[in-house]
Specification:
Elements: E1 11-15, H1 44-56, E2 61-65, H2 75-83, E3 90-95, H3 100-110, E4 114-118, H4 124-131, H5 136-149, E5 154-160, H6 169-178, E6 181-187, H7 195-200, H8 205-209, E7 216-217, E8 225-228, E9 236-239, E10 252-255, E11 260-262, E12 271-272, H9 274-277, H10 282-294
Parallel strand pairs: 1-2, 1-10, 2-3, 3-4, 4-5, 5-6, 6-9
Antiparallel strand pairs: 7-8, 8-9, 10-11, 11-12
Length: 318
């Protein structure tokens, strides 16, 4: 289905929980956040209904996010339900990787195609610092399990943070030379409680590229701009929502864990699906999803002084 600006919306990100087993500094405050509670998040039955309705509207790619999606009890069962829906062409997941070593085999068996893993540093002390307690060995085990189970291509999402991991750019790039991993540098965004601090630590994709001469351009994939080094096993990607508007190429919509559709990550606009979900009328649900797609704005305006996003990242789904 096309939105009102002619963009084909074919991709939905689904937050299955706002809970997370980490407390990353740019995602939530140190004391954590008040969880929505089990009675306020979408049930697996409701998520399945939404996916079925979305497929009929032309959405074919779905990504499960959180919080941390592997922290949602029964997540493998949800993957199994969604993977068997006719018309779902790609089912993926973004995870912090902490629990992936435990779940990778069952996720692949249930029908998950691949994973993206959030990883902002390769240094143990810095990882524990930014995640407020995470163990980097757990992530490395998750990456290895994903590769072994064929949840590929495995993509590592690296939020670029000035003064924190800008000295590790070459270390991450080196991973693509020796391992079949795609490294994607993502610009820090002014979202939630940490919006002001995020602005001060912003590092643009162009600044990163200056550290990486002789990159070979690859075919662009969605909003990511890809490059490669000769003989490398993996690629290097850049996602630049702040320094380079890619809104014209945006093909996605987001479903929050509490049943709101966000047409754009970078605005506070939301469409509530609960009224439609309380009925057995799937046509009504499709119309509600259509309304959200047609309500998608032409672009975000964060660079022009628009209000920062009110929800913290764990309540949006990345």
């Amino acid at each position: 289905m096309k939105d009102s600006f002619g963009r084909e919306i074919s991709y939905m990100r689904i937050s299955v929980t706002d809970r997370c087993n980490l407390r990353c500094k740019y995602c939530m405050p140190e004391e954590g956040v008040e969880n929505l509670g089990h009675d306020k998040i979408l049930t697996f039955e409701e998520i399945t209904r939404i996916v079925k309705a979305s497929v009929e509207l032309g959405i074919t790619k779905f990504r499960l996010t959180g919080g941390e999606p592997l922290a949602r009890r029964g997540i493998v069962d949800l993957v199994d339900r969604l993977a068997t829906i006719e018309g779902v062409k790609e089912l993926t997941m973004t995870t912090n990787g902490i629990l992936l070593g435990e779940f990778a085999h069952d996720l692949k068996k249930a029908g998950l195609n691949r994973v993206n893993i959030s990883l902002d540093t390769l240094q143990y002390e810095k990882y524990e610092e930014i995640t407020r307690g995470g163990n980097l060995d757990d992530v490395f085990a998750g990456i290895q399990a994903a590769l072994e189970e064929g949840l590929t291509p495995v993509k590592l999402n690296v939020v670029a943070i000035s003064g924190f991991n800008d000295d590790e750019i070459l270390d991450f790039v080196q991973l693509t030379c020796n391992h079949p991993l795609d490294i994607r540098f993502i610009e820090l965004m002014p979202i939630g409680h940490a919006a002001a601090e995020n602005h001060e630590q912003f590092l643009s994709s162009q600044e990163i590229k200056k550290k990486l001469p002789c990159l070979i351009p690859q075919e662009q994939n969605g909003v990511a701009e890809y490059y490669r080094y000769p003989e490398a096993l993996g690629k290097i990607g850049f996602i630049s929502p702040m320094s380079c508007h890619f809104c014209n190429d945006c093909n996605k919509i987001r479903l929050t864990a509490d049943g709101k559709l966000k047409p754009c990550l970078h605005t506070n606009q939301e469409f509530d699906l609960h009224k439609a979900l309380k009925t057995d009328d799937d046509e009504m649900l499709k119309e509600a999803i259509k309304e959200a797609i047609l309500g998608k704005e032409d672009r975000h305006h964060l660079n022009e002084g628009a209000d920062p996003i009110q929800r913290d990242m764990n309540k949006i789904g990345g």
